[in-house]
Amino acid sequence: MESWSLFADWHTHTQYSDGKGTIIDNALAGRERQLRQVAITDHAPASIGVGFKEPATTISQMRTEIEAWNANEQTPQLLLGAETNLVSRQGDLDLPPQLLKQLDLVIASLHPLVRPLEWQDGATMLLPNVIQRYTRLRSRQLRNTNTKALVEAVYRNPVSFVAHPGLWLDIDTEELAEACVCRNTALEINCQHTDILADYVAAAMPTGVDFVISSDAHLPEQVGQLEAGWSLAKKLGLPPERIRNAEQRGETSE
Ligand SMILES: [Zn+2]
Ligand SMILES: [Zn+2]
Question: Count of alpha carbons within 13 Å of 200, Cβ hemisphere only?
Answer without folding.
Answer: 27
